[in-house]
Design goal:
Shape: globular
CATH superfamily: Vaccinia Virus protein VP39
Pfam families: Methyltransf_25
Protein name: Class I SAM-dependent methyltransferase
CATH class: Alpha Beta
CATH architecture: 3-Layer(aba) Sandwich
EC number: 2.1.-.-
Number of strands: 9
Order of helices and strands: HHEHEHEEHEEEHEE
Largest sheet: 7 strands, mixed
Number of domains: 1
Distance between the termini: 34 Å
CATH topology: Rossmann fold
Helix content: 25-40%
InterPro entries: Methyltransf_25, Methyltransf_Superfamily, SAM-dependent_MTases_sf
Organism: Saccharopolyspora rosea
Strand content: 25-35%
Length: about 210
């Protein structure tokens, strides 16, 4: 599958389930105190680089974007799925949402003070992920922070799994940290959360800073 067909397939898959997904995920953060703590730490660190904008890349229906706004950030969302963006705009009319791809952002060099990718890099074929880190580096200001949330491989290699919406990959957290390091990021911290009763996989959270 080519890169363009992969992106189109992912967008189409999320378009098809957008309404159900938005309903399912609406209040998810309320029951995830460790995840909220990671987002709060990111927000505090992002504010240290100034009052510039922060982007949630792969924002879906906008629930995490809105949470980051509530944490005091000047934040907007970007997603491949036009239907997801429509839902995000309806749910959060005070926030900015745009259709776009994480690997080719319509942003100036150094425009962002922070990036959150909340379970969105999971859909990127592993061989293509370094190019996304290059784009993250391009749009971040010096000292800007990047937060990645993903499904962790629990001692195994990078591997595809049967995600409910579109092809996705579980990553060893050390491998993701290595890709970030190669792209010029410095690790700030990481958090691994064991799956809850209704979850299948360990959750990984990696926080890095542009050196």
């Amino acid at each position: 599958m080519t890169e363009s067909s992969h992106l189109a397939a992912t967008a189409d898959a999320y378009d098809a389930v957008a309404v159900r997904y938005a309903e399912f995920a609406r209040d998810e953060l309320a029951g995830l105190p460790l995840d909220r703590a990671v987002l709060a730490a990111f927000a505090e660190l992002a504010r240290t680089t100034g009052a510039g904008p922060v982007a949630e890349l792969g924002c879906g229906p906008g629930r995490v974007t809105a949470h980051l706004r509530d944490l005091g950030l000047d934040v907007f969302g970007v997603d491949l799925s036009p239907v997801m963006i429509d839902l995000a705009r309806q749910a959060h009319p005070d926030l900015r949402f745009e259709v776009g791809s994480m690997d080719s952002l319509d942003l100036a060099d150094g425009e962002l003070h922070g990036i959150v990718s909340w379970y969105s890099v999971i859909h990127i074929p592993p061989r293509e992920l370094p190019a996304y880190f290059t784009e993250f580096r391009r749009v971040l200001a010096p000292g800007g922070h990047l937060l990645l949330a993903f499904f962790e491989s629990e001692g195994g290699p990078v591997a595809a799994f049967d995600h409910a919406v579109a092809t996705a990959y579980r990553w060893p957290i050390d491998d993701l940290a290595g890709l970030a390091d190669e792209a010029g990021f410095v690790e700030v911290g990481r958090m691994l959360r064991e799956p809850r009763e209704q979850e299948r996989f360990r959750r990984g959270h990696l926080l890095v800073r542009l050196g």
